[in-house]
Amino acid sequence: MKRLLFLATPLVLFATSHITSVTAITKVYGDGEHIAKIVLSYDAPILASSLSSDDFSVEGRQIVKAALSDAAGTQTGAKSSKFIALDLAPLAFSGSPASPNKPKSLGKGGPKLNSLGNPKQIPDIKASISQTGTLQTATATYPAGKSVSVDIRGSSMSEEAWQEAVQKAAAQRASEAKNTQNKTPNLTPASHENSIVKTAQNSAQLSDLATSSLNHPSQSASKASQTATKSSQSSNNLSKPHSTPQTQALRLGVRDFTQHKFIAKDGESLEYNLFIPKDYNASKTYPLVLFMHDAGAVSPDVLTTLTQGRGAVAWSESAVQDMQSAFVLAPQYSRIMVDDNYAHSADLDRTIELINELKTRYNIGKIYNSGQSMGGMTSLAMDMLHPGFFAGSYVVASKWEFSKAANLSGTKLFLIASENDPGAKPSMDELTSKLTQIGRCVKRLEIDAKSADLNARVASLFSPDCDVYYLIFKGGDHRYTWQYGYDITPALIWLLKG
Fold first, then answer.
1. Under 8 Å between Cβ of 226 and 248
2. Which domains, from first to last, does the chain contain?
3. Which of 47, 65, 105, 464 gives a 20 to 30 Å CA spacing to 220?
4. For residues 445 and 169, what is the distance between their CA atoms, to the nearest angstrom?
5. End-to-end CA separation in angstroms for the chain
6. Neighbours of 144 (CB within 10 A)
7. Minimal CA–CA distance to 257: which of 300, 218, 224, 216?
8. Pairing between strand 125-131 and 148-152?
9. With the C-alpha atoms ordered 433, 202, 32, 288, is the resulting torsion angle positive or negative?
10. CA dihedral defined by 269, 273, 277, 278, rounded to 10 degrees?
11. What is the spatial distance between Cα 166 and Cα 170, in angstroms, rounded to a whole number?
12. pTM
C-alpha cells in the first residue's frame, strides 16, 4: 500500500519499492566468480539528472558507479531509462599475498590418487540492494525504499544430489584416515588423533585447496545459457509498486560454455564444458585449448572448473578470441587425477580420448593444453606420454619429474611459478635447466604479478627463435600464481597463434 503526499509537483510516492526486476551480472576473477554489476529495472524511466552512486547501497560491496543503462547493463547515455546499472568494485583476492618468506617444504603431502577430494558447493548468487537516495521520474519522486534481494541457487546439482556426493567424499576421507591410523604404530589414541589432525592440516596447506575460489556467487547450469536479462513487463501505473521484484542472473564467461558428458571406451564418464568459437565455420580449421583445474576444484559439479578462477574462461574471452578463434575444453574431474608421486589416473587417457572424439565432430587443428597445479602436472604428463599430440602448453604453479624432458623437444611452453611455491618453483627451475641443456632457448622473467606493465613486459619477451618462456612471480605462494597467471593476454595469444 502506498501513500500519496499531495504537494506541488513533482508527485512524491511512498512505496515498498518501484523496482520491478533485479539482475546480478557475475564475472570470473582470479580467485573465483562474484557479482560485478547489478541492473535494476524500475516501473518508470528514471531521470539521469537525479542519479548518483550515493543513491544506492549493496551490502558488503562498494558501488563505484551508478548509470542509466539498457537491460544488459550497458551504459546508454540517455536522459532517462527504466534501467540503472550499479558497477561494483572487485573484491580483494582470497589466499596469501606476495610474501618475502621462503618456502619451508618440498610441496609433498597432497591428496591421494583417485580421491574424491573435499568438494565445496558453488555458493548461491546473493546480494542485498537498497535505494538510499531520492530518484526522479518525469512525473514523480521516488524516495528511499526498502532493500531488495537476489538469491539464486548457484550449484548445477540439486541439494539432495550434492549432499549425497559430499557424504560419499567424507566417507572416503574417513576410511583413509582409519587406514592411516591402523598403520601408525606406538601411538596412544589421544596422541594418534592429534597426529591425524596435524597430517590433515599439512595436507590442506600443501595441496591445491582452491576452495576459497568458490566463495563467490555463481548460478545454476540451467541459468548458464542466459544471454540477456528479462525485460521488465511492468506498466507505468505508479499506483502499484512492486514489493517482490523478479530476480535473475547473467554469468559472463560461463554462459558461453555448454555442458556435456563423455562416455569413454572403458564405460566411465567424464563431464566437460565446451566453448565453440562464435565464428565457427566447418570449412575452417580452429585450434583447441584444453584447461585442467587444480585438486581443490575436484567436484561432481560440472560448473566448478569454470568458476574457480580464470583458467578456463580467459581463453574464451574476446581479448583472446578476437586475435585467434579457438575451442576451449574444460573437463570437470570428480577425482584426483595426478598425485605428488607423479602417478596419474585413467582420467588422463579419457581426456585424450575425449579430444580425439571432438576432432571427429569439429574441424580442430592444433591442440594445446593448460592447467594449474594438478592440472598443470597433468599437462606436463600428457606432453611426455604423448609427444607431439599437443603443440604447446601453458603451465601454472605445477611440477613434474623430468627424466623424459627430451619428449618436450617440440612443445612450446609458457611456464609460471611463484617465488615461494615449494613445489612448482624448484621443479620449473629444474625443467628449464634441462631444456637448456638439450639446446632449447629459454627466456626467463621475474616480476611482480601486480605490476602495471606485466603484459607489456611479457609481450616484449617473445621472439621467433625462442619457444620456452619462464615467468616467476616475486613472492607469492602456490594459489597466488593462478590468481594472476591467466590475465597475461599476450602469452595466451602467443600460445594459440604459433
1. yes
2. 3-102+122-154+217-250 (2.60.40.1220), 256-497 (3.40.50.1820)
3. 65
4. 41
5. 65
6. 14
7. 224
8. antiparallel
9. positive
10. 120
11. 6
12. 0.83
Residue showing cell 542485498: 128
> Which residues in 174-208 are b (16+ Cβ under 10 Å) and which e?
eeeeeeeeeeeeeeeeeeeeeeeeeeeeebeebbb
Amino acid at 495: L
Q: Which residue has the cell 566468480?
A: 33
Instruction: Mark residue 476 as left, alpha or beta (left: phi above 0; alpha: psi -120 to 50; beta: remaining).
Output: left
Question: Residue 66 has which C-alpha cell?
Answer: 551508478
SS3 50: helix
Question: Over its length of 498 residues, how does the chain's per-residue pLDDT go in tens digits?
Answer: 333 333 333 344 434 579 999 999 999 999 999 999 999 999 999 999 999 999 999 999 999 999 999 999 999 999 999 999 999 999 998 655 554 455 445 556 678 888 988 888 888 889 999 999 999 999 999 999 888 999 988 788 888 888 998 888 888 878 877 776 665 444 333 333 333 233 333 333 323 333 333 333 333 333 333 333 333 333 333 334 556 889 999 999 999 999 999 999 999 999 999 999 999 999 999 999 999 999 999 999 999 999 999 999 999 999 999 999 999 999 999 999 998 888 999 999 999 999 999 999 999 999 999 999 999 999 999 999 999 999 999 999 999 887 767 778 778 999 999 999 999 999 999 999 999 998 999 999 999 999 999 999 999 999 999 999 999 999 999 999 999 999 999 999 999 986
Angle at 54 between CA 52 and CA 56, to 5 degrees: 95
Bridge partners of residue 416, in order along the sequence = 396, 471
SS3 track for 234-279? CCCCCCCCCCCCEEEEEECCHHHCEEEEEECCCCCEEEEEEECCCC
